[in-house]
# Entry
Amino acid sequence: MSTDQDLLADGRLTDGLLAHPYAVYDRLRDSAPVHRVTGPDGSPAWLVTRYDDVREALANPLLSLDKRHALPGGYKGFALPPALDANLLNMDPPDHTRIRRLVGRAFTTRRVEQLRAPIRRTADHLLDALGVHGDTDLIAAYAAPLPITVICDLLGVPDGHRRDFRAWTDVLVAPDPARPQAAKEAVVAMLGFFTQLLAAKRKEPADDLLSDLIAVRDESGSTGNGRVGSDRAGSDRLSEDELMSLAFLILFAGYENTVQLIGTAVLALLQHPDQLAALRADPSRLPAAVEEFVRYDGPALLAIRRFPREDVTIGDVTVPAGETVLLSLAAANRDPRRFPDADRFDLGRDATGHLALGHGIHYCLGAPLARLETEIALAALLERLPDLKLDGDPGDLRWRPSLRARGLLALPVTY
# Structure
């Protein structure tokens, strides 16, 4: 066990971790398998950094996501009202199994593939707005509006609310210490938004995922068009809090993870012109390249916190029941024991087995959609903007001040 107080200071992230997370994680991973650290809110936690330990812990049923297994005073993550907190990120089986079965059919690789044409149309529309040459912030103009449009279309969220949702999400992921009330205000606004949206969908159902989920809730598990549904009427129904929390999670994660992934993928290519040239020469490599993008600089530094149901040994450390365990996906994906020369960005490597999207029963539900959106976003960029370049010094790029989401605040480019 090791203590590393410069990982976090006074409950807040240090500049070193934000600006150079992989250098910090390399040092931690090399020094010990598990570290005693201070959580984002100032409470104690245990940080796991090595690939084998992280992978095993992700699938360990003794490590619970349910906050009821947490000791008082430990780090628990987001503080959300019950109507938004009853989601898959806080659940173990059997509730996790039940809810994931209800919605999982909407995110299979086969069903997601049916979205390829609409996603490409959205990408082309956004690139049309940029014109054939100029300069822009690629996050604001492209990487952010693409996934929010896709996930809102899938759920059936009206156009007029999409900008608000992006703003609320940004506040929750990276709270501003100068505005301590902003996160609470965002939660209140989101709760009101989902309450009104569910009421509108109940009144006028449509051909969208949210209408299907409402049918699961209100009609004993039957659905109108078969995208989601239950195998057993009654026992698989959603509670009202579960319904609202599920809608929140799909919209939140469907936007947040993909915008970060697209941004860091483009940055990696612009910083490695040889890799960019190889991909331009053979765009058919894009699906495999996405795996290296998520391994090399994925959208989450850490997995969702976990709480041991009983004392658990990780590496050479016994973590007491109820204490908080943080699993570093970023450190695991740069572990040279699993990926040789792991700090090198290489689109030719076999990146399968990375943990950026999780492992085990909590593997990212929206992984097929995130992969497809990233593939299409990059394919459109390579085709439409052949002279894309980074505008300015890479050292001037600003990253989100967040342990939850690894992402750029802006990506200035010329084209």
Summary: Residues 346 and 378 are 16 Å apart (CA to CA). The chain is about 45% helix and 10% strand.
